[in-house]
Amino acid sequence: MSMVHASQGMNHPASANLRSEPWIVAGIARATLPNSRVPWDSFRDDYRLIREKIEAVFSDFENFNSRIMRAGGFHITNSARERVWKTATGKANFVVTPLPPETMRDAAAKKATAPVFVLTTLRAHDQYNTTVYSRNDRYRGIHNDRRVVFMHADDIAQLGIVAGQRVDLATVSDDGQRRVLGGLLPVPYDIPRGCVGAYFPEANVLVPLASHGKRSGTPSSKEIPVTVTKIPAS
Predict the structure, then answer these.
(1) Domain encompassing residue 70
(2) Nearest CA to 197 among 86, 128, 119?
(3) Is 88 part of any domain?
(4) Global confidence as pTM
(5) Rounded distance, CA 72 to CA 59, Å?
(6) Is residue 159 part of a domain?
(7) Spatial distance between the Cα atoms of 221 and 122, rounded to a whole number of angstroms
(8) Residues 27, 66: one domain?
């Protein structure tokens, strides 16, 4: 962990229309901010310029463009990993934030006719952000499949889901939009009852654009009210 190294794609692109993440982000930024002084097209065409900007912000990335070419890359020190806490107390400080009187799930349960679960999206071991390197997840014992939903075994049993039966997840919202992610295989997992987990970016379709943190603007991808519907056996 904490190793920074270059990577090189080995497979031929599935389509000539596939674009890289920097290409997509730069295009969105250029279209949204036409008067921006940021050279988005330059970043799109030359990733070395992106690394130069990272180096300018984070001292750990000094000489980024040259160090990234070393075999095996280079290591970034994480003080927390070394149990070094750079705080006033010299210890790890935890902050307890109380839940609101009515959670998103509480509000959704008033509208739904089926049990409402709280969805959190997550990534697999063989994945970096939205780049998926394989269909395996050694963190959670998943092999050759990403269309899964992690559920408590008691919730699976209560819904009457049998082994091998797939389900649909549907977002509970009041904006009139229908958001469904179908064909997921329930996997018993050590997760609190009433909660489910699914991989992103596949599960991003369930996150309403208007659902985000009030201060941060971050999508609420860890707290999406959903229902779980069994798909009849064919």
Answers:
(1) 3-75
(2) 119
(3) no
(4) 0.75
(5) 20
(6) yes
(7) 9
(8) yes
Cα–Cα distance between 58 and 72 in angstroms, integer?
Answer: 20
For residue 74, the 8-state DSSP code is E
Q: Is residue 85 part of a domain?
A: no
Same domain? 127 vs 194: yes
**What would the pLDDT profile of 147-175 be if each residue is shown by its tens digit?**
999 999 999 999 999 999 999 999 999 88
**Contact at 8 Å (CB) between 224 and 216?**
no
Query: Tokens standing for 144?
Result: 């050759």
95 found inside a domain? no
4-11, Cβ contacts within 8 angstroms, sequence gap of 24 or more: 4/61, 4/67, 4/68, 4/73, 4/74, 4/75, 4/76, 5/68, 5/72, 5/73, 5/74, 6/68, 6/69, 6/73
Rounded percentage of the chain residues whose pLDDT exceeds 70: 99
- In this predicted structure, the answer to whether residue 233 has a pLDDT above a threshold of 80 is no
Shared domain for 65 and 131, answered yes or no, is no
Indicate the number of domains in the chain.
2
Name the amino acid, one letter, at 12. H
Q: The tokens of 150 are what?
A: 């992690």
CA quadruple 22, 27, 28, 29: dihedral, nearest 10: 80
